[in-house]
Specification:
Chain lengths: ~325, ~675
Amino acid sequence: MVSVIQQFEKRVSFWVERRIPPVNQVELSHREIFILPTRWGVLFLGLIGLLILTGINYQNSMILAVGFFLFSILLLNIVSAYRNISGLYIKFHHSEPCFAGDLGGLEFVVAAREKNHSSIEIGWVPESFNTVDIEKGQSVRFIIELPCPERGRYRPGRMLITSVFPMGLIRAWSWQDLKAEIIVYPKPLESQMVWGQAEGDQQSGKKAMIPGQEDFEGLRSYVPGESLNRVAWKKYAQSGEFYSKEFAQPLTDPEWIDFSAYSVGDTEIRLAMMCHQVLAMNAKRQLYGVRLPGKVIAPDLSELHKNQCLSALALYPEG
Amino acid sequence: MMGGRRLSRHFNHPPRVERQALIWLIIALIPATLGHWEVLPGWLILFAAAVVAFRMAAFKGWIPELNKWIKASLMVLTVLLFAWTSRRQFTVENAVGFFVLAYCLKLVELKSHRDAYIFSFMTLFLLALGLLFSQSLFRTAFVFTFMGVGLVSLTAVSTQMKMKSLVSSLGSVYRLMLLAVPVLAILYVVFPRFGPLWSMPLNSSSAFTGLDDTVSPGDVANLAQSGERAFRVTFRDNIPLPKDLYWKGLILDRYFSGRWSRSFFQENTERWSGKPRNLSRDEAFDYEVLLDPHNRSWGFSLDGSQLVAGDAYSTTQGLVRFTKEVKSATWYRMKREVQSGEQLTPAEIDRYTKLPQLENPQTITWAGQIVQSHDSPRGQINYVLEFLNENNFFYTLNPPLLPSSDRADAFLFGSRRGFCEHYASSIGILFRAMGIPTRMVVGYQGGEWNTQGGFLVVHQYDAHAWLEVWLRGEGWVRVDPTAAVSPARVESGIREAVAEEGTFLQNSPLSLSRFSDVNIVSWIRDQAEYLNYMWISRVVNYDQESQKSLLSRFLGNGDIKYIAMLLAVTAAVLFGGLGLYSLWPEWAKNRKQPVQRQYHRFVRKLAVKNSSIHPGMTPRQILEAPGNLEADRPTIRSIVLGFERLLFAGVSDRAAGQQLLRQIKRQINRL
């Protein structure tokens, strides 16, 4: 039974894939729009049946007429639902990268060229949806937030564009693959783990720590295992919580964040640690470069550089 | 940077209904409830108002929501109260009342979206039920107007639009309703009509006015205070004079303890003497009656006419009877026939002259004197009528009270002031005492002419009682003692007859009928009456028969097969029309841009085969796109070149361009 349903779903999605190929932008037309009554539409039909039955049994012409009237309203709802969604222009505009496990924002542009579009819901079932009303000639940019659990290039795939306007009785919808994607950085993993500039031994980690010890820069949450010398005892006396003193290291030689320098953990953990390191370096205004197998990003320090590095981590081993 | 609005929301509706939706539900509740105000107990209307006030206050945050125990006890309490006030009768009115109660209680506990949808549907149903008790033009307009509000409340529930856009969507809902009218009209005409599928156990409690089958003092006078309409009549030709418009409804042949009623024999005659009813509207007829619902099973007819069409039958005595109570406006057609005099058996003569002994001794003595002084029954009757005319009898709607016994004596030899019922009753007793077979007839007399519509309107205040006497060789003959006293009553109606005393509709000071003398009022009344008449007779009374005759005009035969065919054709036209209506803008646009249209087809066709192709690519890009099938390449190349010529190079003349486009089209078809 389950396999029959699965097979059916597979066939449907295959059919949809062929009928509505992925596009960069789309103006919805009858090829891509599907229409079915909602469950309230079905119940409305039941109401019409009840009215017609009442009209017949009480020989009451006008109640019969109300039944016919609501039936024609239901028919016109099909047309209205279709017209409300057809001609809607939609395009994937932009996405802002996020870290794995966070919500990623995908920005879309919808525009109404010839008519108003009311209560259009756009998004992915069942995660997140956005409702927009667009007036004729307007265009609206809006963001749909999606949870992005895994590192990499996340393609949410077919999105649903739907509306039950005007009366919630008929649902018109379309599935569109607008080639939306979002780059998901690894989730930063703070490490006390050792990493060396070269093939350092694990015990020498403390010395090799990049967070400097000379210039006090600020406080951050104490991480168990850190040297007790760095605990901000005064702060502890005030708040009862452990904080570590952070010291900035003066700009010196560029640091290399090197994949091969991590000797433990699988690829994902290493990338997560590297991600944390990139952010730390960036925060400390230290020149840094990234070395991945098959890819080297030369040391630099800028927002753009940071994004490049993180993207490289996100897309590894894609390149 | 991202400039868009960041609003995230779940696909499924939030469990709680929004505020603006709640406001619309409450707005829609008001007409849905008020539409039934005539049949609702007063406390229920107050309860509805309280529920609305409570919901509004809770909505404003002035008072907290009720907890479930209070809600439950409120429900139990109101249901018990309802059971008590409705006296546990299963009438339609009580069913509707109970529905209203459930509907109001639903508003009290309304929380979720589901509730809101169900509440909206209840609103629509309740509005429609308002038509159960009246299908007049006004009521229908009321129901359909507020259907719009009910539908907007559905919009409010289903779409979370802002209040402002909901108000403007009221306009678009009414536009939609106008568009629905043609579909509604077609369905109304072609939907097959048939009788009730099962009998409805719910009866209507008698909230109707009309004549009853017993006449005791004061009944007709009460009706005379009602400006309601009893029935309407259209004549084909030969409109009778007002003094001949005696609309017979009931024959009362039994006089007992001060009241006239139907005997067992009379009831049997009416019940069993019916001819098979004839539903055809094709028969020739003289007049058509459109009877207002009066919840009784009798109709009204002129002397000597037979029913030729309608869901009713004529009795041998020329009365119109229905098989069940008339609960909605009903029509029937009558034809006048010359009658031969009826013969009575001695037993019947005995029955029609029967009087209780020892009642009205003075009248009986006087009857003996008349019989002795005049030979023929004709002469005796004429003597009595002249006596009435000449001896200070008055026609009045405000007669003095008569004693409970020997009323005829008290009236004929005492007060001498009364209306039709007094005259018919006491003279009937006198005639019977004289040995003349006599029966009382009640019905209506006269009517008001609607000049606009050319039909006669008979009102409740036209109710009248008169006598029929049986004369050997002539049969039953009408004798109206009231006419002898007040000729104005039968010639120009009750309004004229009581003009001096000013008692016409004295209990309803605002009734339009009172102001018929004012020209503009009477004109408006005429127009409204006319519109309503056309509405009821042409639209509301469109039934199986009218459908058959209308459809047979187009199809030649009212066969069910043809009706089914017609339905199928209608459905095809409806859906075709709707499809055309929805797709037309796209087609029209496409037609204007034939080249673009073909290009879209081309790209779409290729995109299915080759995922690297998408709309927005130029012809050249498509040609060079990776992944095109080897077999298609020559065709694609030729098509692309063709498009480039059409789009960029410019084709010199129109015809050549069209030719090239046709060629491209064929090539695309082959892809």
